[in-house]
Design brief:
about 230 residues; alpha/beta
C-alpha cells in the first residue's frame, strides 16, 4: 500500500493507557520524600485527563496488582476505549495499591490486540517506572507491531527511571516499542514533566500528523521527546 493510501491518524483515534501499578510505584524516592510515585502520577493524570477525554475515546490496562500468585499474570483490562472516560479512569487509578512485577510487554500486547479489532489507527501510551521484569521481549513485540499492526502507534513514558539511590542508568530497551512504531519516548522525573509527557502522548502530539510508517522512516532523534 502506498504511503498516501494508508489510514491517516488523527486526534480522534482511540487510546489505550497501559498503566504501571507494580510494587515499585509505592516508592517515595524524591528529594522531598512523600507522596509516592503513584500519587504523583495521579496528580499528573488529574491535570491532563479532563481535556483529553472530551475529544477521544480512552481505555485502561493496569499491570501489577491482582489475585495471581505469579504477579506477571496480573494484567487487567479495566476499561475498553470509552467516550468521556476521564472520571472512570481516575476512579480506577485512585483505587490502585502498588503490587507485583512489571509485565509491560504483555500489557502492551494485550492493548494492541484489543485495538486491532478495528481497522482504524490507534494509540497505546505505556507508562512505566522501570523495565519489564516478567521476561517479555519488548523489541520483538515492537517489530511484530510494525509489520502486523502498522496502524498502531506506541508512546512510552519512563517515569523515575533514575531514582536518587540508583547506580548509573542502563539503556532502557523498552523504548524500542516507540522507536519501531514511530511513537514518542519520553522520560519524566517530576509531576510537572510527567503531566507534559502525558499531555503530549494522550492528547494530540505533533507526530500524529504523519502515519506510523512515515514517522518510522524519519530520524527518531528528531521526534523523540525527552523531558529532563
Amino acid at each position: 500500500m502506498a504511503v498516501e493510501d494508508e489510514p491517516k491518524p488523527s486526534c480522534l483515534d482511540d487510546v489505550m493507557l497501559v498503566f504501571d501499578a507494580s510494587g515499585s510505584m509505592a516508592a517515595t524516592d524524591f528529594p522531598e520524600g512523600a507522596p509516592s510515585r503513584l500519587d504523583r502520577v495521579r496528580q499528573a493524570l488529574f491535570q491532563v485527563l479532563p481535556a483529553v477525554a472530551r475529544s477521544r475515546r480512552l481505555g485502561l490496562i493496569v499491570y501489577g496488582p491482582g489475585g495471581n500468585f505469579d504477579t506477571c499474570r496480573n494484567v487487567d483490562l479495566r476499561l475498553a476505549p470509552t467516550a468521556d472516560a476521564g472520571d472512570l479512569i481516575m476512579k480506577e487509578v485512585e483505587g490502585l495499591r502498588p503490587q507485583g512485577r512489571t509485565a509491560l510487554t504483555t500489557s502492551v500486547r494485550q492493548a494492541a490486540d484489543l485495538l486491532q479489532q478495528g481497522a482504524r489507527p490507534a494509540v497505546i501510551v505505556a507508562l512505566t517506572d522501570g523495565q519489564d521484569t516478567c521476561g517479555g521481549d519488548a523489541c520483538r513485540l515492537a517489530e511484530e507491531l510494525r509489520s502486523q499492526h502498522p496502524a498502531i502507534t506506541v508512546h512510552v513514558i519512563g517515569y523515575r527511571l533514575t531514582p536518587m539511590t540508583a547506580p548509573a542508568p542502563t539503556p532502557f530497551v523498552e523504548r524500542c516499542l516507540a522507536d519501531a512504531t514511530g511513537g514518542i519516548f519520553a522520560t519524566a522525573e517530576t509531576s510537572e514533566q510527567l503531566a507534559s509527557a502525558l499531555s503530549e502522548t494522550l492528547g494530540c502530539p505533533a507526530t500524529t500528523l504523519l502515519t506510523p510508517q512515515t514517522r518510522a522512516r524519519l530520524s527518531l532523534h528528531h521526534w523523540a521527546l525527552t523531558f529532563r
